[in-house]
Write a structure and sequence with these properties.
The chain is mainly beta. It contains no helices and 11 strands. The relative contact order is 0.32.
């Protein structure tokens, strides 16, 4: 069973920085996209950033120019460097992974439990 564990969340001041990490474990035949979504209070979950197996990155409009996503060499770890934080960045951040775990199965989505990021003004 694939499991994702996030770390690095916490409290930051506006203009500060945090670095989130996500580590995937379990048997996987292949890993594909990996990234982060977030869900502010009383809103829908939205894309923060994702990175493909080939290294292509996509960022949500709200974080472009401030956040950077990177993937570990083993492609089972993903990082999110968050700079110039704003109070609007306050949310629960969820790591996700697209992975193939069965020989004749398709790609499935896996999610972490989420880590709280709170930015104070």
């Amino acid at each position: 069973q694939v499991q994702l564990v996030e770390s690095g969340g916490g409290l930051a001041q506006a203009g500060g920085s945090l670095r989130l990490s996500c580590a995937a474990s379990g048997t996987m035949l292949a890993t594909n996209d990996m990234g982060w979504y977030r869900q502010p209070p009383n809103t829908e979950r939205e894309l923060v950033a994702k990175i493909t197996r080939e290294g292509t990155t996509i960022y949500g409009d709200a974080v472009k120019g401030r956040f950077t996503i990177a993937r570990g060499d083993a492609r089972r770890t993903v990082y999110l460097q968050m700079n110039s934080l704003k109070p609007e960045d306050t949310a629960v951040y969820y790591c996700y992974l697209l992975a193939q775990v069965k020989l004749f199965g398709g790609v499935e989505s896996y999610w972490g439990q989420g880590t709280q990021v709170t930015v104070s003004s």
